[in-house]
Amino acid sequence: MASLKSLMKDTIIYGLSSIVGRFLNYLLVPLYTAKLAVESGGYGVVTEIYSYVALLLVLLTFGMETAFFRFINKSEEDPLRVYSTTLIAVGSVGLIFVAAVLLGLHPLAAVMGYAAHPEYIALMAACVAIDAFQCIPFAYLRYRRRPLKFAALKLLFITLNIGLNLLYFLGLGGHDVLYIFAINLACTAVVTLGFRRELTGFAWRLDRALLRRMLSYAWPILVLGIAGILNQTADKIIFPHVAQPLDGQSPHAQLGIYGACVKIAMIMAMITQAFRYAYEPFVFGKQKDGDNRETYARAMKFFIIFTLLAFLAVTAYMDILQYIISPGYRQGLRVVPIVMAAEILMGIYFNLSFWYKLIDRTIWGAWFSGAGCLVLIAVNVLLIPRYGYMACAWAGVAGYGTATLLSYFVGQHYYPVRYPLGAIAVYVLLAALFFAIMTYTPREWPQWLRLSINTACLLAFAGHILYHEKLFRR
Which end of the chain has less neighbouring CB within 10 Å, N or C? Predict the structure, then answer.
């Protein structure tokens, strides 16, 4: 129980940095949607480019973040040698990537549909290479259990990013998408300076034998990561190429609407990410203590409980949260609960994924994520032309649902864990009931009455958690 409390404490710190950071970053959503009109497709460009960034980040870290945690926790390995080998490997790949992009910049930009703006691609390449390198010192902070510095550096980036965006768009009256990417690169570079202590004071040495073993462990993680990130970004990459103009809106304009509304649903991604930051070192560290399957089962249960609570909280106050985005973008708000459901499934899938990492059978993760990715891509390609961005939202549910079910049933064969399925089912059904009440409350009723009903449902769900989980009882 003490170890679970330690996990919860670290999750809270990581979560606060993630949630506060994302909340502050939300200030940019009304700014961008106000300055970049729907018809211009500017926010659609931002959504698409950052989708490529997310995919490239997985490629440029190539599973080494997880491999780092696996090998640095092995008693026979020298932690600093594992760290320096990982830094050199990821840093070298990043430098090669940037050089290759710059050498073939114009043809690459043309293929991506940005022949008129190759500078977008150049800035994206530099930014993602630095981000990939930063993943390793950030992982080292997690290994050393230094969540406060981790949080401080994350918030430094957000603060700088918001400040410079406000200066450009409001202070200088700008409206060029290019400066969004340029500001991001500048802020990423500044944060790198915060890793001075994590990047000095030890010998930078590449252990080739160690690297080969790490790569052998990491390559299925890379496949898993590619499939996993495609589950999050493929819709936004595919959409401009298969969507049809609708109601006078170009595919990029529609993508901008979808991307803006998805931002509201990202509170689920924050919780999942915060849990992951704390859970990965926790799982590999607990392996030293022996079999802890009961702890893993309880962690899964509490993850589901609190993500359902967050789901209901966003649903309850959608009438308020909608003001995050400009009126022209609000026509897409119906995707929010669907995208949040997909994020919950993604979090469950991540929590299930530890079993094949602990037994060094990461290839299973590649198969599961690959299957989910194929389902998601198929749904997007087949249904976007007819249903637009609604198909994107449901494709996420289909893809993550497929991967989750496969991981659960195969995992029960190789590394069985007795999850409290009955208790979890009660929470899911109760959340579904309250969601239905919130959703089908007549829209013509006064807003204060609807918010009161929603708040009552939310409090009832929270009360059920407190009573049945005995969180505040000795």
Answer: C
